[in-house]
Amino acid sequence: MEIEKIVKNFIEQDIHCNLDLKIQTFVLLTCFVATDSKELFQEKLMEAAQKYEKESLKEVIYQLTPYLGYGRIYPFLVLTEEILGQTKDAKTVTNETRYQKGLEVQGEIVGKEALAFMREKEKEEYKFIWDDLASYCFGDFYTRKYLTIQEREIITFTALASFRDVTPQLGSHVKANLQVGNKKETLIEIVKLLVPYLGFPRSLNVINVIKENTKEEWEKKTEEKKKGGAFGLGQENTAFAQYFIGKSYLNPLTDPNKTSLFLANVTFEPGCRNNWHIHHAKSGGGQILICVDGEGWYQEEGKEAQSLKPGDVVTISANVKHWHGAKKDSWFSHIAIEVPGEEPSNEWCEPVRDEEYEKLG
Known about the structure:
Elements (H helix, E strand, L loop, with lengths): L1 H13 L6 H14 L3 H11 L5 H15 L1 H15 L13 H13 L1 H10 L5 H16 L6 H14 L4 H13 L4 H15 L1 H27 L8 E2 L7 E2 L2 E5 L9 E7 L4 E2 L2 E4 L2 E2 L2 E8 L1 E5 L5 E3 L4 E4 L5 E5 L5 E7 L2 E2 L2 E4 L5 H5 L3
Antiparallel strand pairs: 1-3, 2-5, 3-4, 4-13, 6-15, 7-14, 8-11, 8-13, 9-10, 9-12
Helix pairs in contact: 2-3, 2-4, 2-9, 2-11, 3-5, 4-5, 4-8, 4-9, 6-7, 6-8, 9-10, 9-11, 10-12, 11-12
């Protein structure tokens, strides 16, 4: 048929998907079940059976049961058994453990606090659905072997994206994918692969659900990127947290294993400052601060505090007691340069007292 040539050409010429080939297979098998496309399913499963572990292929179909319903998947289960034949048992729970194990997996996927909130707000007459979700959906299926949690969530997302109008649940599983470590970009790649089989209206709707349910994450990442100036926020500075009031972040700019000059972008949240400290050295040594973002303070013992803004440079001699940090209403970032010296060491002293810090305005 001419239409087959048109669709095949569209897939080969326009659909450029960056997903792993095995994941592409899982996604297409799922879509064919959800859209009741038996011929496409049979052809794809027969091809996949020559490449991939049969147990994992069967688990793709099993995973769809609580989402698409036993009635819809039953004909595909029959086809699967005919094509794959006997496979190893994947069950890991018993009747005594399935509920508790299901709750544990569900908490891992949606977040323990979110799960507790959802279960708590339901009225008693609706509680059964949450208990059934725990024991059946998550206990009986998510705990099975041969697929990872990440793979199962991709399959679930694909099923909901391909099946009728289940927007609220699709949105929940966009967030669940992020929770278990799958990325927004992976979900977009799945939609790319599905366009020929779902059509453009459905594909656009799914894209909108992804955008809406990753908006908060995107805004958070965008906001974080604004912190730290051009050199970026880096990671929370947990190794030295005991020497700071408030949170600080560290983004190393040079590798100390490759150069004797260590530079790092240090970012302080509003109100954060480090303790009084001293950079000791027999000769040379000390530190240079280059201010790159926000506003902060620098103070040497016995001197007035100095207000800092981007472009300011502070040269700290060795053996001088001092502290530095953010103003109370501003983030602050500076590049810290450790000046090479003879026998350098750092001595951490007492915190900067709140009453002294508050006087700075």
